[in-house]
Amino acid sequence: MEMIKFEQRDHVGIVTIDRPKALNALNSQVLDELNEVFDSIDLNTVRAVVLTGSGEKSFVAGADIGEMSNLSVEEGEAFGKKGNDVFRKIELFPIPVIAAVNGFALGGGCELSMSCDIRICSDNAVFGQPEVGLGITPGFGGTQRLARLIGPGKAKEMIYSAKNIKADEAYRVGLVNNVYPQAELMDEALKLAGKIASNAPIAVRACKEAINEGLQVDMDKAIVVEEKLFGKCFKTEDQIEGMKAFLEKRKVEGFKNK
Ligand code: CAA
């Protein structure tokens, strides 16, 4: 892979979009490689993923404007589908994905961060959906996920006006969970990922599935989704050990993902 780096530290995978000369903009190759890297993650050993961009300036400055500039209607739709398919893969990825947003998260960059489970950012981060200023709509899920995350009123203001917001406002509107000095961002992302990875993996995955699926249906159906996933945790080795350890007033030695 030329434009994506992958590293594994203990149970945490780190995916870095590495196209710094174009501020990590998403062209077809980056999208293909992003798809490939998520397919290649070993879910037997990796329990959480941190997704970030190369350099200190930009997470992802959007879809590649040069590549998009000459697309036909059909090609535009196909490019949207390419991005949407990868981002949906990330959203539905069995284990949690944390976006460590290290600078610009514009257009496709903001959309990529929103396909992750959790967003944290550096204090120089800038979020926005500038697409209408380029004559297009957000095309990798922005019209759908932004409204779901921060509410339709604020999302419509950001999308219609194409006005960017800085890290402190992203925090205020609930787009990011926390803001850190740039130098501390990766450590904080890895700390959070490590904390997640230290919990019972089958249970963590079930929580992700329950939240994602439950949000698609009404509450009566949603609680049934939860009941089924709750039930599935019982008699796993990690459930037996987790509860035994509590009752014996000791710490779990390390969950086994079994
Ligand atoms: N696509 C292609 N190239 C991009 C890019 C993008 N989205 N964003 C930045 N680059 C390139 C620039 O063309 C430039 O390349 P050259 O050095 O070869 O000229 C390089 O990255 C550095 O960028 P700038 O010189 O512009 O850096 P800056 O510090 O002056 O500005 C910026 C930074 C404000 C992020 C500015 O680059 C910018 O506005 N980028 C575009 C942001 C944008 O509109 N994103 C949305 C794209 S549309 C989209 O994403 C659609 C969708 O939903 C799927």
Q: Overview of this structure, please?
A:
It is a single chain. This protein is an alpha/beta fold. It has two domains: 194 residues, 2-enoyl-CoA Hydratase, Chain A, domain 1; 47 residues, Lyase 2-enoyl-coa Hydratase, Chain  A, domain 2 (Orthogonal Bundle). Helix content is 48%, strand content 16%. The chain has a six-stranded mixed sheet with strand order 1-2-3-5-7-10, sandwiched between helices. Helix 1 links the parallel strand 2 and strand 3. The longest helix is centred in the N-terminal third of the chain and has 19 residues. The radius of gyration is 19 Å and the shape is globular. The mean pLDDT is 98. Bound molecules: acetoacetyl-coenzyme A. Acetoacetyl-coenzyme A (CAA) binds next to helix 2, strand 6 and helix 4. Acetoacetyl-coenzyme A binds next to helix 2, strand 6 and helix 4.
